[in-house]
Amino acid sequence: MQTLKLRRAMMFMPGNNPAMLQNAGIYGADSVIFDLEDAVSIHEKDSARQLVLQALTHFTYSCEIAIRINHIQTPYGFRDLETVLPGKPDLIRLPKAESAEEIQTVAEVIARIERECGFPDGTIKMGAAIETAKGLRQAYAIASASPRMEFLAIGGEDFIADLKTTRSKDGRELFVARSQLVLAAREAGIQAIDTVFADANDDETFLNEVRFIKQLGFDGKSVINPRQVRQVQEVFAPTEKEISHARRVLAAYQDALDRKSGVIALDGKMIDTPIVTRAERVLAYAAAVRN
Amino acid sequence: MINKVGRLIPDTLPGYAEVRPYSGPFAFQPSGRMAGARLRAQNPAANKVLASLEQAIDATGLKDGMTISFHHHFRNGDFVLNRVVETIARKGIKGLTLAPSSLNDINDAILPHIESGVVTAIETSGARGKLGKTISAGKLARPAIIRSHGGRARAIECGELKIDVAFIGAPCCDKAGNINGVDGPSACGSMGYAMVDAAYADKVVAITDHLVPHPAFPISIPQTQVDFVVELDSIGDPAGIASGALRISRNPRELLIAEYAAAVIEHSGYFNEGYSLQLGSGGASLAAAQFIREKMKARNIQGSFGVGGVTAPFVDMLNEGLFSVLFDTQDFDLPSIESLKNNPRHLEMSASYYANPHSGGPIVNNLDVVILSATEVDVDFNVNVITDSNGIIMGASGGHSDTAAGAKLAIVVAPLLRGRLPMVLDRVNTIVTPGETVDVIITERGLAVNPKRTDLLDRLKDTRLPVLDIRELQDIAYKMSGKPESVETSDEVVAVIEYRDGSIIDVVRKPL
Q1: A20 to chain B nearest CA, in Å?
Q2: So where are chain B's domains?
Q3: B444 with A23: Cβ contact below 8 A
Q4: Are the C-beta atoms of B180 and B171 separated by less than 8 Å?
Q5: Using an 8 Å Cβ cutoff, are B503 and B156 in contact?
Q6: CA gap B385, B72 in Å, rounded
Q7: What mean pLDDT comes out for the span A124-152?
Q8: Contact A19, A40 (CB under 8 A)
Q9: CB neighbour list of residue A137: distance below 8 Å, 6 or more residues apart
Q10: What is the pLDDT confidence band of residue A1, given thresholds at 50, 70 and 90?
Q11: What is the pLDDT of residues B307-365, one digit of tens each?
Q12: Mean pLDDT, residues B412-441
């Protein structure tokens, strides 16, 4: 069984803060995103990308390291790529994606620098955040624009601004966008990552949101506070009950196969292929969590 | 001579008739009798209340070369020490030994009086700021003596630290000299450190800004020990004495360390009904309170007693019934002061009851678990809390070595790196607490168990805790920071670090 790549909690760290870069790996996040975009003022763009390069070069991180570059239509995006890619990050995350061409352009730069640096082709993956209505309409094209693409994320604040509305506590204004994003990601066979939740002191609303987006089908959530990492991971962790049920489903399935029986039932309920697939996913997920 | 922790100690030191090298936490067996104050007699008609500090200083008979003491319960809100030293200086008295229970940044104000020779020696728990730098620069006539809280109580009670005049900031006092710390504008809570001074000093002056009708209630320091009372407009700045409720850190790195600490306690074998606990007031140590509290509730465990340095999170645990009793030698925030005043299960104790090793048994001997902070640790588990990475005095010994020696499980929490400096070294710059009394060192990147605690290693190895060898922890730090160069020093000894039993565990040499 192939081990799932977990991206339950993708934690942003400002790229201009040496102490945070140094300690980024200790909080157990599945991915850490060194941010060169919104967290860094235009006066610090150059120093931040140098700091991030030094962090990539000198520190050993046990988790996935992604870099959120500035958009390639800004004066900073390509410079970000040229500077940080030789540090061999695991992943480049493009903000405000609106077209497949942008993804392909970034992918070409990555491919060139991989060659120049002697990295195997395809070493550095990509993800993209959808933050506008225009981007959402292109979500599938963006998701499938390059084999490097690993996930689509939704950038909630910008998206809500683009919709000309405001953020509500239950996030109903994002419901359609979130659902469409999951559909696009699933169609393209990649992961879907939810937006950040800004109020690190409102645990209750945060946890409700995490439970909700998990139910929608998201694979994980972007977070901004190390405290939120554990909270997200606990919501996403399969429960003992789920694991034991999955085992029983697979045992019943195997038993039916052995007996060459066409009808499979467990506790009086019929087991069909989607239920078996889900059980397999639960166990694969539990195995990935254990690792 | 080389002592048991491998430190080169001079054969002779100014201020010591005999230099006794550290030879183990309980190696020294004291003999002799306790010291005591001079006999007093008080006429019923006599009036202890004097009009000014000047009059009080005259009345004590303070002379050149004597030793004066203060408590540090007012921390950075203390007006007493500076004002008394200033007044003494105006009288032309010189060559004094200053022996406060500790020194804070606010006491930098006495620097001119060190320069001018009013104060020529210091015996205390620690120093910070410019005072720490001044001591480190060798500006005193003899090396400063750094003692733990228990060690200071021991030195006073056995006569090694003979206090001629104790000036006691008294938040609430009556005209006969009964003192408490829980009332008045400068309320500080427990008077634990001052209790020892009051009991053993030849002369005791209570200095108050809250003179109440006799008798003051409660009585922490009794009138029988007080010679004179002086009323001033203000003896302290409440904002500097105690904060509002100390809050649990939100620093994620401290929280992570705290979580590891709580988990170590949970799996240590000591986390049982009736266990006892001391927490420091530092970020990670205090933050551990919230995780320990959750675990105590989840496991339905009630502790017997807590010890502090009391802070609001500890008071909350007392109020929730998670501990039966709190023993309190000092209070860090307003809820703790209120609790000491109102909760009969919140008990004030002296520094001697807290930690004096040469007594019938201080409360630290009954501790199961203590969580302590550290400036630096080394691969032998020795801890430095007194000098910085440049060898400058900037901290205090406090109850560190006392509680580490007393508790069954001494946990030291520290970041693995401070900025670009690794905190797990080959040798700490200065040893305050010997590694043989430290059981676990916890950092944000893993924890190390003292190899002699094979029982603890066994208990922790099957948990998900990141248990590493201490050298593996050091390697992680060195890989990021490189190996730091050692601090270069001259041969001049500027401070002596006494272990709690009065032996010399280390000296601070003047950095070049």
Answers
A1: 10
A2: 49-235, 252-486
A3: yes
A4: yes
A5: no
A6: 18
A7: 98
A8: no
A9: none
A10: very low
A11: 988 999 999 999 999 999 999 999 999 999 999 999 999 999 999 999 999 999 999 99
A12: 95
Could you read off the pLDDT of B227-246 as tens digits, one per residue?
999 999 999 999 999 888 78
Beta strand B383-384 with B376-378 is antiparallel
- What tokens does A265 get? 């039932």
Q: Is the Cβ of B111 closer than 8 Å to some Cβ of chain A?
A: no
What residues in A contact B479, CB-CB < 8 Å? 60
| Cβ separation B256–A59 shorter than 8 A | no
> Bridge-partner residues for A94, per DSSP?
A128
The fold of the B252-486 domain, in CATH, is Glutaconate Coenzyme A-transferase (3.40.1080)
pLDDT recorded at residue A2? 52
- DSSP label of B393: B
Q: What is the number of helices (H) and of strands (E) in chain A?
A: 12, 10
As given in the structure block, the two tokens for residue A121 are: 């082709």
Chain A residue numbers touching B416 (CB-CB < 8 A): none
Q: Does B479 touch chain A (CB under 8 A)?
A: yes
Q: In this predicted structure, what is the pLDDT of residue B246?
A: 80
Mean pLDDT of A78-101: 98
Handedness of CA B215, B221, B226, B232 (dihedral sign): negative
CATH domain B49-235 topology: Glutaconate Coenzyme A-transferase (3.40.1080)
Q: How far is CA B408 from its chain centroid? A: 20
Judge whether A68 and A56 are in contact, CB under 8 Å: no
In degrees and rounded to multiples of 5, residue B132 shows phi and psi of: -60, -40
The single-letter DSSP state of residue A48 is H
ipTM greater than cut 0.90: no
Domains B49-235 and B252-486 share a fold: yes
Q: Express each pLDDT in B152-163 by its tens digit.
A: 999 999 999 999
Inter-chain CB proximity B252 and A19 less than 8 Å: no
Smallest CA-to-CA distance from A231 within A251, A254, A211 is with: A211
Domain range A9-236, CATH architecture: Alpha-Beta Barrel (3.20)
Q: Verify whether the Cβ–Cβ distance A26 to B417 is below 8 Å.
A: no
Asked if residues B377 and B424 have their Cβ atoms less than 8 Å apart, the reply is yes
Go through B304-339 and write b for each residue having 16 or more CB atoms within 10 A of its CB, e for each that does not.
ebbbbbbbbbbbbbbeeebbebbbbbbbbbbbbbbb
Dihedral Cα B203, B208, B212, B214, nearest 10 deg = 0
Record: contact A225-B253, CB cut-off 8 A = no
Dihedral angle of Cα B134, B139, B145, B149, to the nearest 10 degrees: -30
The continuous run of DSSP H or E covering B60 comes out as helix B53-60
Is there a contact between A232 and A250 (Cβ–Cβ < 8 Å)?
no
Residues of chain B with Cβ-Cβ distance to A22 below 8 Å are 417, 480
Amino acid identity of residue B465, one-letter, is L
Residue that the structure tokens 């809500």 belong to: A160
Distance CA(A228)–CA(A230), nearest Å, equals 6
Beta-bridge mates of residue A92:
A67, A126
Q: Confidence band (pLDDT; 50, 70, 90) for A231?
A: very high
B254 touches chain A (CB under 8 A): no
Q: Residue B21 corresponds to which tokens in the numbers above?
A: 């090298």
Q: What is the DSSP string of B324-382?
A: EEEEEEEE-BHHHHHHHHH-TTEEE--HHHHH-SSSS--GGGG-SEEEEE-SEEETT--
Distance CA A24, CA A14 (A): 10
Question: Of B252, B419, B480, which has the smallest distance from its Cβ to A27's Cβ?
Answer: B252
Amino acid found at B453:
R
Q: Which residue of B has its CA nearest to A22?
A: B480
